[in-house]
Predict the structure.
Amino acid sequence: MALQNIGASNRNDAFYRYKMPKMVTKTEGKGNGIKTNIVNNVEIAKALARPPSYTTKYFGCELGAQSKFDEKTGTSLVNGAHSTSKLASLLEAFIKRYVQCYGCGNPETEILITKSQMVNLKCAACGFISECDMRDKLTTFILKNPPEAKKGGKDKKAMRRAEKERLKEGEAADEAMKKLKKKGTSNGKEASSKAVKNHSSDEDISPKHDEVADDDEDDDDDGIQWQTDTSREAAEKRMKEQLSAATAELVMLSVKEEEEEKSLVQEIKKFLKKGLPISEFKTFISSLSEPPQDVMDALFNALLDGVVKDFADVVTEKKRYFVAATQEEGSQMLLLNSIGSFFGKKGNEEVGKEVAHVLKALYDVDVIEEEFVLEWYQKGLTGVDKSSPVWKNVKPFAVWLQSADSETEGEEED
């Protein structure tokens, strides 16, 4: 079974211990009855410690298609023909929203439903409580179909056993490689010991000579005993070779991701150049098959392509596009994430300071609202990228929003 790391942000970590099976899909039926079967959805859901009905329902919600999970047969079906890559990208979005801890990014979380009917994720690694977006359609489904209640120590033991199984699967490839390396050494030693034993016997050794000869004929190594050089120099050389191969793979994956991102940016820029009505722009954005966050990132990069200063003036000038792209629930948070990513990658201190002006400009034209900005800012301060300089530059605007809110409350009291 092919395995991969859980979470897109960990895909290049060769030592990451949380694994899940790679998705396998199959298109069934034809015409109006065509469906996509996620063949190993049960195994994937088990690795994520989530009911398979959750992932199936999520695919249906995001694709706007009917979906069904059969508890008896373990079959997961989504209406329509959908590529494996498209469903895999949606699965990554599901993992980010409903599996990984919002604080440390660890996938070892448990779904909790509060008394006030909120869906939270409790992290077993850092203890952080993540609040899921209650506007998502899947959260409503989770409230109606809550995960099975835990049964104390027995369930914890089961989780530990499942974790050990995942680790064993991840280490299976390494063990197989070690056995292959040892095979050459053991074959050489075995042939040598047989020869010594045959010559030391007082009986007729001619048959045994034939046996040794047969062994020599079968031995492709021509009697050579393969051994692993365990010297420090050899070990360092092997380590450098392994690191070089891993580094090359990381570089290739990084280049591939950058190319895909640039391709989406170019596609959006090409459409913008046509100067079509904003209604057609909405249709175009909705038709893109990439995950919503990737689309928003590409849109922001396309609209600000080539800009080196006065970013706030540019976003104000192009506000109609931002308004059109933030009509759906959760889209404001996507835009804020794109802004953080855009200015975080710039690496220029002066440019980085403009993030607060951009937020203020979008706030003034009613593209983003105060509550989402403050929520995004607080998550950033406690999130995985909390050391990013973006949050230092956003702080003045966040403080201004909070103080303005306090003044408004004071005036109302008077």
About this structure: The beta strands are 3-5, 19-21, 25-28, 35-38, 67-70, 75-79, 109-113, 119-123, 129-131.
